[in-house]
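Lecture notes, part 5. Sequence design as translation. It can be helpful to think of inverse folding as translation between two languages: the language of shapes and the language of residues. The source text, in structure tokens, appears below.
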């Protein structure tokens, strides 16, 4: 479910790594960088080459400051600009997010229909109500961390002055001499042999694009289907999938069938987990 990246000014990310991120999270990419103490947001939804042009622009104009990069898999809200990351809270701070923020109250239009927005969009609308330089307040940050939980969601904030903060930083991975932080391992080339996509069903191979245009979470009455089957196609024993939320390796048949580790499943879908304890 997406990959947020924090790149310090000293960090380097190869084009191949960015391509891997796009391939594995191909519902658009976005960048937040700083130029003249102002935040600048660039988004591309369709073509990697155009995204990479944005990246080169960001390096040229803001390469001496930290930047945020995000590649999305859409789990709620369509693949449109307003649901793309980064999100701008105000002129002084923006952020990117990985995961699903549970118990989100999605807004409705005048006809009672859910708006076509994501959980992160709703979270950003809530952040807009905070006053002052709340990002410098450790108590406020701790409350935000409590809101998103400590096992799945990760959020990277960046201010126009170059200050960055990562909620649940320990769930990600620092590379390039601790100059680039990745929220999960989808920056690497995936080598899937078989498995079960808990939104789209069984397939013998995976493209990395798992949830495009899926809008069940908060928008529909069609949640993931759970399967109790104790059989799964043989997998290459040297290749394992990653949990779609926390990116930890998944090994058991139950986890492989749903592409999500048991702990994340229980957190993100508590009612379903309770209804089928042996999923």
């Amino acid at each position: 479910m997406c990959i947020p990246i924090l790149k310090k000014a000293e960090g380097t990310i190869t084009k191949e790594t960015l391509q891997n991120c796009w391939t594995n999270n191909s519902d658009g990419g976005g960048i937040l960088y700083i130029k003249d103490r102002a935040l600048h947001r660039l988004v591309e939804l369709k073509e990697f080459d155009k995204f990479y042009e944005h990246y080169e622009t960001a390096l040229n104009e803001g390469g001496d400051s930290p930047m945020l990069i995000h590649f999305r898999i859409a789990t709620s809200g369509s693949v449109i600009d307003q649901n793309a990351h980064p999100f701008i809270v105000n002129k002084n701070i923006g952020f990117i997010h990985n995961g699903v923020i549970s118990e989100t109250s999605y807004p409705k239009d005048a006809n009672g229909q859910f708006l076509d927005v994501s959980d992160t969009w709703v979270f950003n609308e809530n952040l807009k109500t905070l006053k002052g330089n709340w990002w410098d307040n450790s108590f406020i940050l701790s409350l935000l961390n409590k809101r998103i939980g400590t096992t799945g969601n990760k959020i990277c904030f960046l201010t126009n002055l170059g200050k960055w903060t990562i909620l649940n930083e320990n769930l990600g991975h620092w590379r390039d001499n601790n100059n680039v932080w990745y929220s999960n391992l989808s920056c690497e080339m995936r080598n899937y042999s078989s498995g079960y996509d808990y939104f789209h069903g069984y397939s013998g191979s995976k493209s990395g694009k798992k949830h495009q245009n899926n809008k069940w979470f908060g928008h529909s009455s069609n949640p993931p289907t759970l399967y109790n089957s104790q059989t799964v196609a043989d997998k290459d024993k040297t290749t394992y999938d990653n949990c779609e939320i926390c990116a930890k390796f998944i090994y058991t048949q139950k986890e492989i069938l749903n592409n999500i580790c048991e702990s994340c499943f229980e957190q993100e879908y508590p009612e379903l987990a309770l209804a089928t304890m042996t999923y």
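The translated text above is only one of many valid answers, since several sequences can fold into similar shapes. Confidence is low (pLDDT under 50) at residues 191-239, 275-279.
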